[in-house]
Structure formats: C-alpha cells, structure tokens
TrEMBL record, chains A, B:
The species this protein was found in: Dulcicalothrix desertica PCC 7102
GO biological process: carbohydrate metabolic process
One Gene Ontology molecular-function label: hydrolase activity, hydrolyzing O-glycosyl compounds
Keywords, ordered alphabetically: Magnesium, Metal-binding
Keyword set includes Transit peptide: no
Protein name: Beta-phosphoglucomutase
Site (Important for catalytic activity and assists the phosphoryl transfer reaction to Asp8 by balancing charge and orienting the reacting groups): S855, K886
Chain positions recorded as Mg(2+) binding sites: D752, D754, E910, D911
Note on cofactor: Binds 2 magnesium ions per subunit.
Origin: domain of life: Bacteria
Start and end residues of each Glycoside hydrolase family 65 central catalytic domain: 302-685
Coiled coil: none
Binding, substrate: 752-754, 768, 787-792, 795, 817, 855-859, 886
Amino acid sequence: MDLNNNVDFIYTDWSLIETRFDPDKIHHRETVFTIGNGYLGTRGTFEEGYSRATPATLLHGVFDDVPIVYTELANCPDWLPLSITIDGERFRMDRGEIISYERKLDLRRGILSRFIRWRSTGGKTVDLQFERFASLASEHVTALRCQIKPVDFDGLVEVQASISGYPENQGFNHWELIDQGSISKAAWLNLRTRNSRITLGMGLGMNVSGAEASVIVTNPPGYPTVITSFQATSGQAVTVDKLVTFFTSRDVENPVQAAQQELADLPQYSTLLKEHSLAWEQAWDKSDIAIEGDVRAALAVRYNLFQLLIAAPTNDDRVSIAAKTLSGFGYRGHVFWDTEIFILPFFIYTQPELARNLLTYRYHTIGGARRKAVHYGYKGAMYSWESADTGDEVTPRWLPPNDPYGEDIRIWCRDREIHISADVVYAVWSYWLVSGDDDWMRDYGAEIILDTAVFWGSRVEYSTKYEQYEIRGVIGADEYHELANNNAFTNRMVQWHLEKAIATQDWLREKYPEKAKELETRLQLTLSRRLRWQDIIANLAIPYDPNTKLIEQQDGFFKLEDINLADYEPRTKSMQTILTIEGANKRQVLKQPDVLMLLYLMRESQEFPYTLEILEKNWDYYAPRTDITYGSSLGPAIHAILASDLGKTDEAYHNFMQAAMVDIEDVRGNAHEGIHGASAGGIWQAVVFGFGGIKLTENGPVATAHLPQGWKRLQFKINWRGDWHEFDLKAEGTNMETLHNSNSNIKGVIFDLDGVLTDTAEYHYLGWQRLADEEGLPFNREANEELRGVSRRESLLKIIGDKHYSEEQILEMMERKNRYYVESIENISPKDLLPGALDLLEELRAAGIKIALGSASKNARPVVEKLGIAKHIDVIADGYSVQQPKPAPDLFLFAAKELGLAPNECIVVEDAAAGIEAAKAGKIIAVGLGPSERVGEADIVLPSLENVHWQDLQAKLTDLILQPS
Amino acid sequence: MDLNNNVDFIYTDWSLIETRFDPDKIHHRETVFTIGNGYLGTRGTFEEGYSRATPATLLHGVFDDVPIVYTELANCPDWLPLSITIDGERFRMDRGEIISYERKLDLRRGILSRFIRWRSTGGKTVDLQFERFASLASEHVTALRCQIKPVDFDGLVEVQASISGYPENQGFNHWELIDQGSISKAAWLNLRTRNSRITLGMGLGMNVSGAEASVIVTNPPGYPTVITSFQATSGQAVTVDKLVTFFTSRDVENPVQAAQQELADLPQYSTLLKEHSLAWEQAWDKSDIAIEGDVRAALAVRYNLFQLLIAAPTNDDRVSIAAKTLSGFGYRGHVFWDTEIFILPFFIYTQPELARNLLTYRYHTIGGARRKAVHYGYKGAMYSWESADTGDEVTPRWLPPNDPYGEDIRIWCRDREIHISADVVYAVWSYWLVSGDDDWMRDYGAEIILDTAVFWGSRVEYSTKYEQYEIRGVIGADEYHELANNNAFTNRMVQWHLEKAIATQDWLREKYPEKAKELETRLQLTLSRRLRWQDIIANLAIPYDPNTKLIEQQDGFFKLEDINLADYEPRTKSMQTILTIEGANKRQVLKQPDVLMLLYLMRESQEFPYTLEILEKNWDYYAPRTDITYGSSLGPAIHAILASDLGKTDEAYHNFMQAAMVDIEDVRGNAHEGIHGASAGGIWQAVVFGFGGIKLTENGPVATAHLPQGWKRLQFKINWRGDWHEFDLKAEGTNMETLHNSNSNIKGVIFDLDGVLTDTAEYHYLGWQRLADEEGLPFNREANEELRGVSRRESLLKIIGDKHYSEEQILEMMERKNRYYVESIENISPKDLLPGALDLLEELRAAGIKIALGSASKNARPVVEKLGIAKHIDVIADGYSVQQPKPAPDLFLFAAKELGLAPNECIVVEDAAAGIEAAKAGKIIAVGLGPSERVGEADIVLPSLENVHWQDLQAKLTDLILQPS
C-alpha cells in the first residue's frame, strides 16, 4: 500500500494543507475537511456549490425514519452556500482559471480556510479568502467569512448567502418546510423532520465591510438568501461575514425563536472567532499529543484527535458518537462498540465529562436494550449492535440487491454480534476505574452492568455433554465468521463481565445499600441469579490450550481450511470480497483481531488470559491470518500496540500510520463516507498505551516509552482520578543539542528537480524563449543558464532587464510562460528521468534514507507524478512552500523540517548556483551537479547522477568531514 | 359505504367543482385535480405552496434507481410555484380569510382553474383567478396564468414564479443540478437523474399585462425564479402568465437548449390556450361518452376518460401507462396488467394510435422479459409483473417492516403472478382484431405472441399421475391466494394464448412467409415446440365441472374454509387485513374476480368457458365471496358489467359508481397515491360493453343497451377496423317530451334548509340583529320574517332600506353578518334537526326518492354535515350553485338537473314565500311549511314536517292532480 498517495497535501505540525483543487477527490476531501463543535458537524464542501458535492451538516440526535436501516441522522439544511458573482460571472473553480489555490485546516483553532486567486473566463482576476468555523464556544453558532479582492479590475460584485432547506441523505430529504421569513436584514427558516417530528429553527445574518454595500433578503421557498452587492475596486478587499444559528426542539421549546434571538444577540465575527479560538486552546490543553521528529505522524495524530473532539457531545448525554462521527452518511449515524472500546479511552483519560455524556447515553437507551432482549426471548438488557435515538436495534437485516434479479444478503450482526453488551460494560468499568466517579457508577453505571449481566444469565446455555457453559451462534470481534460457537473473545468478555457484575453488586451493597436494594428489587437480582453468574464464571468454555498457549478463536477454528494471505497479494479488496462470505466463513482468515483483541483488552489490567508469552504465541498465529489491510479499519491500531509490545517496531509503525492516515490519505478508499471514528480512537490508544507504554499502577499511570524510529519526543497528558499527569518522553539516546555532523547521521536527501532528476530545464528554456521572442526581448541558451534554480518572477525580471513593464503585465507574462511550460510538460513520462536518478532513489529508499524534493517550481508535483517517482518521495517542498526563493535557504530548511530532520542530517543535490548558495546558507551539505563554474561552491561536485551510488556518496561525505573545513 | 362523502363537490356535465378549501384533503385533491398531456402529468398542488403538499410532475419514461423497488418515475422539478405578496403579506389560504373559493377542473378543455377572494391578515381583499394547463397541442409546454385584482386597496404586489429543482419522491430527490441561468427575462435549469443519467432541461418565462411591472430573474441554486412587482389598483386586474418548457435527453440531444429555444418561440398565452382547447376538442370528438339523466355519472365517466387521455403517451412507444398514471407515487410508475386488460380497450376502440404506442412498449421491453425467463430458468419471454423502462422485473421482493423488530413480508407476485404474459397477448390480439393493423401484427405483435408462447411451453409441467398438463405455484387474478396450482384463470388464459400463437404462426406463414421464417429461426419455433403447444392446449387442466357448471378457482379451492362476508360488516379494511395473509390464503375469499374475470375476458368472443348459464352459476358462487369493496380496485367495474348482463341492474350500478367515484370521492381512502388507472379503464368497458351492450359481429359492433335507472340517453363512438361507429342509446320507454305530471312520476324532493330541515333561521336572525344593532339600523323579529328564503345581499338591502352605503361597505357588512352566523352555527348538531325531518328523509330514501337540498345559503354544506344528514342527500344546490337567487327558479331547476330529473318529477319543500314563488316559477310542485299568510301560494300547505310521512304526501299529491287546476 502506498500511504503517500496524496501528493497534493502538505503536513505541518498543526495544519493540513491542500495545494490543488481536484474535482475527482471532492467527496474524500469533504470528509477530510469536516469541522464541528460537539453539537454539529459540517463536511468540507465548497461554499460555491458543485453538481456532485455531498454537503452535510449533522446535528447530534436529529434522527428520522428511513427504510431498511430504520432511522438515520437527518442531514440538516446546508449553511454553507455562498455564491459570488464577479461582474456577471459566477465564481466556480471548474470554469475560468485557478491561478493559485490553498485550503488549510487549522487544527489548533478549528478553522477551515481557503485562498484562491481565480481568473474568470472574462479575464477578471480576484483573490478570494474563505474562512469558516463551528463555534466551540457557542455551539448553536456557525460562521463563514469571505474576503474578496479584485486583482486587476474594478467592477460589480454580488454575494448571495443562503441556507439550503433541501439537504439530502443520499437523495432523501428528511425535512418539511414549516415556514420562513425575514426580520430586518436577517432571514430565518423553520423545518420539521417528516417522521420523528423534530423541528429545527435557523437564523441567517450577514455583515459586509470594506465597501458601500446593499443588503437585501429574499425568500424563495426553502432557500432563504441574503444578497449583497457592491462596487469593488482593484486591490481593495471587501469582507462578507455570514452567521448562522441552529436550534432544535431537542434543545428548546421554540427553536425558530431561539435561532432568531441568538442571531440578534451575536457579537462581531472577530469576537466570535476569538471566543472560539480560546475554547480550542482549552480543549487542546487537555487532549493534545505532541510528536517531534515525524511531522506527518504529528499532524495525523492531531487530526484524528481533532475529529474526535468535534464529534463528542458537550451538553447532551442522550446521544453518542456514531461510527462515522458527524462527518458523513456511512452507517447512518448509528452507534456501535466503536465508541465504547475504541473511542472512549481518549475521552476517559483527557475529557472525562465528555466520556460521562457518552456513557450516560447507554443508560438512557437501556429501554431499547430491554425491548431487544424481550424480542429475542431473553431477560435483562441486550444492547443493540447498532443503536440510535431509542437504543432499539437498528442494524439492517438485509442488504438489498440493485440488480432486479440479485439476491438480498442477510446481515446477521443484529442477531448474533452480542459482545456489544460486554463492550459497553468494559467502558463503564474503565471510566469508573480511571475517573473514580462513584456517583455516576451508583446512579447509572451499576444498572447497566447488572441488567446486562441478567441478559447473559439468560443467553448462556449449559452443555450436559461437555459439562460446561457455552455461548453458541454468535459473531465475535472477527466478523468473517458469522456463526461461531464459543467465540473466545465473546466468552471471556462475558465471564469478565459477570465477574465485574458481582464486584459491582458487592460494592453497591457495601457503599450504597439502599441503591443496591432498589436495583436488586427492580432488576430481580435474586440470589439464584447471582449463584448462576458464579457458576457461569467458573464453567464457561474458554478454548485455551496451556501447552501451546494458543486460544482457539471459536470451536473448530483450527480445523478450518488454512490460508496464506501472501498468496492473494497484491490486492485492493477485502478477503471477504475475494473469497465470498461463504469462502471466508470456512477459512482461517480474520477480518480483524479477535483473540488478539481480547488480549489487548485484558492487557492493561493483566487479566486472564493475558501474558506476554500468550500474546507472543497468539500473535504469531493470528496476525498473519488477519486481513489487516482491507478487513476492518478497527484492526491496524490494535495491531500497532501489540506489535510495539512485542518489539516489532517497524510493523507497529506501519500499522499505526495505516490507521492514522485512513481518512487523510484515504487508505481504504472509503473515507468519503465519513471519518473512521474507531480508528481515530485507536490512534490515541496506540500512541499513549503503545508507543508511550502507559500502564496504570496503584500510584497512577507510568510510562515506558517505545517510540518509533525518528520520533524524538512525545508529549501528552492524562487524567487519573481527577489529577493531571503530564508525560514528556524522549527517544532513547536522542539529544538534539549534541547531534554530530557525521555521515552516519545523514538521514535525508533533498533533491532539486530540474536538471537533477529530470531535464525540464529544457522545457523551461523553451517556454522562456517563446515568451522572449513574442515580447521582442533578447534571450538565448546562454542567458538561460542564468535562470537555473531561480524563481519564475526572478527569471522574468532577469529577462526583462531594464525595460519597463507594469505589475499587471509582469503577472500576465509569468502566467503565459507557465502556460507554455505546462503544455510542454504534459508529455513527461518516466523516460524523462535523467540517467542514474531512479537507481539512486531506490538505493536511498532501501537504505532507509528519507527523500525530499526541494524545487522552486510550482509544477513540481505534477512533474513528479508524471515521472513516476512520487512513491519514492516523502516530502515535496515546491514553489508554494515558502515565500523566499533560492538562494534563500528557506525551501531546503522547510524540506528538512517536513522530513522531521535537522538541516545537518540532510544533504542537498543541486545543479544551480542559486541552489548551492541556498544549501550553504542553510548549513546543509551541498552536492552540485554540473560544471565547476556553475556548482563549484558545492561541498561535493559531480557531473551528474549517472552511476552515482549511495555508497560512493557516503564515502565522499566521510572524506568531507575528515577534511579540515 | 357512503359514496357521497364529498359534499364540497359540485358535478356538472363537464366540470368538477370544489367549493371549499379543506387542508385535510389536500393530498386527495392533488390527485383529483391532476392535469397532463400524454407527455407529463402534474398533480393539483396549489401554486402558493403548503407544508405538507405533495407536488409532482411526472414525465413518461424518466425512471431512476431506488432501493427495494429498483426503479421509479422520478418526480421532476415542480413548475407550479407562484408566490404572491400583497403589500408585504404572502398569500396563503391558511392565513388571513377566504371569502370565497372555487376550484374547477374543466374536462372539456383540460384546464384547472381556481377563484379565490382572499383577505390578508392586514385586511386587504384581493380576487385571484388561477388557471393552468399542460398543452395537449405542444407537449413540451405548460402554462399558468394568474389574474390579480385588488378589491379594496391600492398597493404593491410582488409575484415570484419559480421552478423548484428540489422535487421529491416521498422525500427522495432524484436530481443533480448541472447548471442554471438566465437569458434576457427568462430562466433555465439543467438537471440530471442520479443513476439513470437522464438530463432534463427546463425553461421558465413570464409575461405581465395590466400594469407597469418590473421583471427580474434570480437564480438561487436549483430554484430559478422570475420576479415581477407592480403597483396594483383597486378594481383593476393584472395578469401574470408563467410559461414553462420541458425536454429530456430521451427526446433530444441537448435538452436545455431545446427548452430555451421552445420557450423563446412560444406564442402568447391566449394562443397557446386556443391551440390546446382545439386539441382537446379533437380528442373528445373520438373518446367522449355522453350520459343524460345522471349528471354525477356523466361527470364521473368523463373524469375517468380524461385521466386516461392525459396519461397516454402520444409520441412515444417506449413507455406505457403506469398503474397510477402520471398522477402520484403509488406503485412508483410501474406498469402492470392494468394497462393491457383494463385500460387498453378504451384506446383500442377510440384512439388506436395510442393503443399501438402502448403495445409497442411491450415489444421494446421484450428483452427484459427474456432476461426474466433466463433468470427463472425458462425459455422465451416471461413478462414482468411490474415493468418499467427496460422490462426487467421490478416488483419489490420484500415489504420491509418499520418497527426494528418487525418481520419483512415476502411479496410473491414477481415469481408467481405469471398470467401477465397471457394478458399482454390478450391485448395484442384485441388490438389486432379491432384495428385490423396487419403491419403492426407482423412487425411487433407476432413476436410478442410467439416468444411468450415459447415461455409457456417451458413453464407448463406434465403430471404423469393425472395425465394432464398443469401450472403449479402461481398467483392468479385473485391475489388473496398466493400459492395456487392450476388456477383456472391462468390455465385457461395460457391455453387461449397457445391457441392464438398457433393461429398467429399460421397467419404469418400464409401472409408473410418471410417474416414467419425469420421468427421461426430467431425464436426457435421448431415443429416439436408447436406440437407441444398443441398437446398442452389439448391436455391442460381446466377445473370445470359440467354438472354444476362451476369452475373451481384452483386445485382444492372448494375445500378451503368457507366465509360469509356479511359477518364482517361493517368494515373499512380489506379482508386480507382482517384475516391476515395466511388467514385469507386458507379461506374461500377473493380479492377480486378470478373465475369471473376469466368469464369476462371470454365473454366478448364467446369462447370457452363463457356461456350465460356458466356465468350465472359462477356469479352466484363467487360474487358473494369477493371482497369487492376493499379488495382490489380492479374488481367493481368488472362486476358491474357481469351484473348488468345478469339483469342485476341495481348491483351493476352500485359497482359501477363505486369504480367511477374511486378517485373523485376517494372511495377506498387511497386516492392520494394517484389515479386508479385500471378502474378508469374499467369504467369505459362498463359503459360501452356493459350498459351499452356492445358486441362485435361480423358486420361490426352492435349495441344492446341495458341503461341504469335514470339514464335517459347514452352516446359514444367506437372505431372498428378504421371506421367510426356512433351510438345514441335511449332508455326503454323514455320519451322526455311525453312525461306526464303524475304523482307516480315524482322521483325527487328538493328541501329548503333553513326553517324546513333545521332552524338556522334563528341563527340568521341573531346575526342580522347584531349587525343592525351595530349599524344603528331598525330591525326586529318581524322584519326578519321578510328575509326568509332571501339571499344575503338582498336581505341586507332590505335592512338598509334607503340609507346610503358604498359597495365596499355593503360587502363588509355581508361578511360581518356571515361571520357572526358562521360562528354561531359551529355548534349545530343532529339535535338541531326540526321534528319529523329525519324520519321523512329516511322514508324517502327507502322509497328510492332522490333528495336534493335547495338553499340560498353559502353555508349549506357545513350545516348539512353538522346535522349528520349528508348521507341522505344526493345533491346540494346552495349559494354557490347559481347566479339568480330565489324567487328566481334557477336554484331549484339546478337541483333538479343535478338529480338527473325533470322539474315535473320533483317537489320542493319550502318555508318562505320567495321559495314558494321560485318553485312555482320553475313549474315544480311546492309544499309550503308554516302559516298560510307566508306560504299560502304553495300547492300543499303543512304546518311543519312533524308527523309528515311520504305516504301522506303522496296522497295529497294525487289529490292535487285530480283537482282541476
């Protein structure tokens, strides 16, 4: 798997930056750029609207009926639409010309921004700066700002800011329009869900500054719109702020009135932004994880935590986090074990109030769990595999075919994936253990633990043949096996659950005897039930062989047909898709860890069957049989932790990054359906429990760091029984101040592109020549030599010489030359790699040396892709990366930083004098390619990369260091 | 069942008039007021829009994917929205006050109009006259006109005319917005279906006349809108015309361009209307049925034919008529046997080109039928029970539960209701027989007949035990039995089909030997297949007992548990709902005719097993066991024809009206889902084949009329082999000129309301008194006596006397008094009936006397409802019915006409002098109630209705006639 398949991203410590608008990726990027505030989530859809866009704003708890999956989170009216018309032509990136583009998610402040310089088909150039946020300080408020600055014209600009009352869940609109209207210069909208009858009130306001602007409100049915228009002047920015408020009948009596009132009371945009930023500062103060030495990982970890923080309900304990958070339509907003087992630890340890909200949801929905138990003929509370507003089972029963003659596929999870009840209890227990919140345990947790224990008492069967208790006909954690008897994960979790149930009852009796009595009466916790629990604990089948130390995943698993996953590589599909459902059922292939998942859950408390030895034996057996790449996204983070425990650092890091990048880089190809919430939660556990090695002792948490290669420092906090514990872990032997400049220390190579890896210098020359000829400027190959490594603007200025041109003309010429160049590089292919380049890249790769590109070109990315070397390059620093061009050192320093390396851990390979100068200025060893008159200033001079090997270079570097400087 | 449950309708020969806006009935009325033109259908949604409205515009063939039912007709953008703002207040009938209201569907010209006098909450009164049509002359064009006339103010009026690009199929929006824009003062919209990728272009234009009006175009996403605003002046009408064009990629290469062009080329509204009216005149010239003597039936028959005419594709032979036409979402636009068996005869006999289009659809979709055969393991073509664009089977397989623990219900029609293939062939054969269209038969029909015969050859099984061919495991016409062996209907239809297949092959060989050869090769019509067909014809099980003449519906039917449907009365649900699916399966209860359906289909050609004797025996057995009221809507019309054949005239008429009113009066409670197309088709057959008794002879069609009671004349045309045959049938012994005025001839009683049936005279008095007191006008009980039977305006003028009031003041006072009155009558209940009234009404009812109300009051309908006597009254003539008030005779004459009676067949019962005078003027016998000084002019004077019986009245009438005049 190529994890670095999104070369149009730049990763910095706190920001995810998209450098290119790619219409084919809009659905993926809508998920990636989701923002939210724990009340609502909004996908990263563009304000101006595109045909196939899938905008979504999802509010916690706003469910409505739908066939097959029973209920789903209803997509709410889209608050983003902002249509900008420049002198009669509507701004859309698929028309006209994008001159520059950058979209940035600022994780630290929860702000999504976008800068575009766009030229209309009519030739008007405009700078547009968008910015949006969902206020973390005022959860009913969202805000959007757009700054509009004409570059080369004066003219009429019109901006329409709307709420679209026609949102859709994959085509379905859950809303009925009740009414709409306007008050002074604001509009409002009042809607109601079709079936659940939840009303939603929204307010819409607009402020314009920087121009004399008219503001009018129009009210096409379902589409309240505020329109402003103004005369814009070249070089002068006009700012349009759009403010939107949301209230539902889940929040207040009269939502539309509340939305109007809130809107009327709002402060200025800048004040809202300040309050919002402050709230984020406070959230990160508790929840941040800082990683030094691996900027990609550092960003990815923060990204995943960000997505969890915006999904957690701040003021509502009747909702929980859905499998896809509030970021997409996948799994319809339903809640799975993903929340309790994967996501909750992050909140338990860093935001315990949010963890409490999430767990209290299970208390409020216990009625649904009881109805489910009754339906299946059991007692107590049987939690639903998929749960929504009421807790009733909402897992679809059938997957309907599309083809008129296709067959429906029966989905068995609702009936059989019963471990969910123990999973909920595992989370309840963890929360209690870590928070020490006895009040909550007494009022909420205990009832959950005990009534689900009652369920197990009715679900477990006794086998007279084997004289043991059994749990038959289940799906375990591994969903490739759809009808398992005595699934090890399920059985041990049930046993563990019953142990905790007895402990809970004892604790209650001791500490809160009245509550104990009340629950014993209401839940019928008779003595005979308690004795039966003890009997089950003692006699429940756990298929563990003390000789081999192997735990058999389920009855007969080891007798299933064996499999060698390598036989199926390379693949891009799950093993179930390849083998069919039936084929997977009868083979020893796992969708995700099952026995290993059990060991992971028992690891922290060192309970049976966890020992390092058992882990080792079972890892060796199960890990190779687990479809970790295309099975469940829940697997990789867990494998990362266990591999880390077992000293398999590379494998751990690989699994970890697979999980960390699942959404940003769309590792599984399904990120458009929404954020992988469980994977995000697993990331926190992998860093803190895995790489940080946090273990709970009687005196609180202690760390034993196993940092991945390259990580220099890892910092995070956790809360243990009300106290904060801060951890600042450094790589063993790492001391940044005392790093020596020795060749053994070279960990990265930064290549210039043109003239080094390929010969686009020729294409540049041809582009400049054509331009110069058209403008009647003197230019030739010799003059071209002067342009090596020089930025586009500087190059042009050199060609122009003394002749006078206006700024506008200069911009036009730069773009003209670029157009010629871009046209000519369309045909670049791997054949255009310079001799020796590919061999050296591959050698470096094999030697574990990181590779960056450091090119002044703004076309570096497409060129690298066309050359087919994108997969060899870790970081691209290009014409968009820094302000100061070579010979300033900025570009190479940026590249080094992105590689996670100090400058003295890198070398630069350059063919231009300006580039050599830049490297020297950055205190980076420079390798010059070409004649001495050009690159003589370099530390090492070579004619080209032909026949240059890493070993030779290393030798030269060693020589260099031994030489007196 | 109360067929007359819609007292807010007036029926005239050609118009259906709704007299009241009832928000609870909007979905039903949207269906009822559907208009269309064979290209599209548009439900009768109000232009101004209401929360729970279900607007729909459905275009033939525009299908798109959807789960469960595979594909459905995609609701297209709503072209109706017209929002009118009167001095800042938006017109909506649920705010402000409706002063008068009338909606009219003019069937003759295909125009839906509405007149409202509305007063805003701000007190501004305006007359609005809406008119809309889908041009029958230019199928891509729809038009809407609104005339706006302020009654009592001058002010600003704004009109927004939009296309809503957010149509929905019960919440689901099938469309993606591609683009939109405007050209001069017109807007356009370009959309594409999500899955089937059909593009739709629409144009929107507006013309305003009668005021200086600005027109601007705005384009909120998906909601192109043309806005006009103008200063309106009291008493002066301004006319706004909205014109819309539609093209899809099914029609042209570039739909949006075509829509723009068509819009640009359109003539004036008035010209469009003229062309449209002319096209309707031509259509009715062929297809009309005129009935005299029963205005309700006359209107209903035309209404049903209208609904069929607007649903039939004029220029497209790749589509057919869906079960719910283009008028609603029921059955998702899928095509059933409803078209071939129920609807087609109307077209075959009156619009053969349309019939050909509909049948050619089956030819174009034979590929789907072949795929279905392959899927089920058979040969040839197996038509789909539900068919859409491709002919593939689109019957849903499951009915999913709503409740999370409910069970899905398996729907077996796709697998088992196989008679559809024979039904299609029945229609092909009928078309050929009637039209004599040999070319079509050669090119299309023959292949359908023969390839479906191939299917039967593979579907029929041979039973060695019984030495016969059998068809096992089917659903017959009666869908209450879901797993039948040797269903009589299916087996005989298959046998008949194979007979026709052999005849077709012989005919082809004889007449078109090359085509015969081509088909024989392509369809593999081997000799062995033909011999097998013959063998099947000879040996297929047809469970007929020549002794009893009974045909057993299926193997073992007579052994099922018997049922007495009367035991379940009264009921409002189907027997299947009452008994459950399983319960109905095991009883002798039918959803709809099955054996009787077979007899009906074989009746015209007098083929086996049809004889009148067999019909009689089987009617007596099956009719009482058929759930004709709440089973299938396909049943009543067929029962009506057979009952008519058997001389059961009353039953025939009852069944006929049940079918005729199924949509207008929502007899089954499901008319909101769309027009019952099959029932509408059945109506034509019931009138022409049943009451008209049309039989085909060698010399063409001949009639033997069995007109229902009261029908004086029945006229229609049919086309037989290219020639038109006109029929003008009169009731036996009916001679309108020679009807005598004898008491035996009294067939109807027309009651005044106030002072006769109830005492609202007192409420009127109180209303007038209050008004008079407020205005300081002299008035008392004595003066009130003068107002009996006098219209509201005349009453007021009497009270005012000489005093001067402006017209506006008069209008206001009339409404004020009415408001007082309406407030006071809110509490009327059956207790308020005057003594004797109810007894007399029931006696008249029992004696078969028709009853009308003839009241000047505009509140007559609500009063009648509150009194609980609506079910006793056939016709209501009220303040809306005629222009001239009593003492003019118009109201009573109107009532008589509506009853289908001559004036001399009626008597009037009145308490007011003006009423007696009106009756006399209309030459209607008058019964006066009250003192002689008031009603002495009456023919018969009685103190009140107390203790008045029909027998006594009859006696007095006889006396009267014997008296010298």
